[in-house]
Design brief:
Structural class: alpha+beta
Shape: elongated
Oligomer: single chain
Helix content: 25-40%
Strand content: 25-35%
Distance between the termini: 42 Å
Order of helices and strands: HHHEEHEHEEHEHEE
Number of helices: 7
Bound molecules: 2-amino-2-deoxy-6-O-phosphono-alpha-D-glucopyranose
Number of strands: 8
Largest sheet: 6 strands, antiparallel
Strand order of the largest sheet: 3-4-5-8-7-6
Length: 243
């Protein structure tokens, strides 16, 4: 049994096992290395019963720190940058929640008029739009490429602000006083095109998690339409459904 575990201490053994596993998971850099040993192996290694290990794992699953893939084992999700369930969060917030340092590189920020995008945003086809394309990083590693399009009148001058070190959503809230209310999104698997693959440091045509999302204000206006290409080994999309 590792020195960390105290049989007679006030902290239940399964809680100690849980914390031990949590520390171990967060020390795991590579997501490929995130598969946990089996229940039996962990019990043997830690010198505790399988029941204790199972209880610790059950709690880690409930907390979203690990997940089980039937027939394949138990995996840590910490390295996969899983978002919080059901909350309308920004990339920045998702990273901070997981103890990862977010940053961005602005690849382009421009104004345009585009009838197709205007239709998606449900504004008149002549409406000036602002488009911001960013590389999103976690602990300085590329995680996603995101292109956000917003009606320019909602956030005049936003393209000139520093969106490398500050959050877009925070900026919309604090500078433009916009209250983001809800998002609708579609997630699908795609192949990374050459340019996106280069930015994400993956081979062209590698699978990426592609997300299209529209975010609405409380009054129903659409504030943002975004297309995101996430590295699937660095980001896992999770949600909780309830009746
Ligand atoms: C998420 C959303 C995007 C949004 C971004 C804002 O990634 N999918 O739609 O643009 O968060 O991130 P931040 O506020 O960190 O700039």
């Amino acid at each position: 049994m590792p020195q960390l575990l105290h049989r007679r201490g006030p902290i239940p053994l399964y809680t100690q096992v849980k914390e031990h596993l949590r520390a171990r998971i967060s020390g795991d850099e590579a997501s490929d290395a995130s598969r946990l040993p089996s229940e039996r192996e962990l019990a043997k290694e830690l010198g505790v019963s399988r029941v204790t290990v199972r209880q610790a794992l059950r709690e880690l699953i409930e907390e979203g720190a690990v997940f089980t893939a039937p027939g394949r084992g138990t995996f840590a999700v910490s390295a996969r940058l899983a978002p919080a369930t059901g909350r309308l969060t920004s990339f920045t917030q998702e990273m901070i929640d997981r103890g990862i340092a977010p940053s961005s590189r602005v690849l382009a920020a421009d104004e345009l008029v585009d009838a197709h995008l205007a239709e998606i945003l449900q504004v008149h086809e002549d409406t000036p739009l602002v488009r911001i394309r960013r590389l999103r990083l976690g602990d300085d590693e590329p995680v996603a490429v995101e292109t956000s399009v917003l009606p320019a009148e909602l956030c005049p001058g936003i393209a000139t602000l520093d969106l490398e070190t500050r959050s877009l959503y925070e900026t919309l809230r604090t500078i433009y006083r916009l209250r983001l209310h809800a998002s609708e999104l579609v997630v699908e698997s795609r192949q990374a095109e050459w340019g996106t693959a280069g930015l994400l440091h993956i081979a062209p045509d590698s699978p990426v998690l592609f997300i299209e999302r529209r975010t609405l204000l409380a009054d129903g206006r659409i504030a943002e339409f975004v297309r995101s290409w996430y590295r699937p080994d660095r980001y896992q999309f999770r949600m909780r459904l309830a009746l």
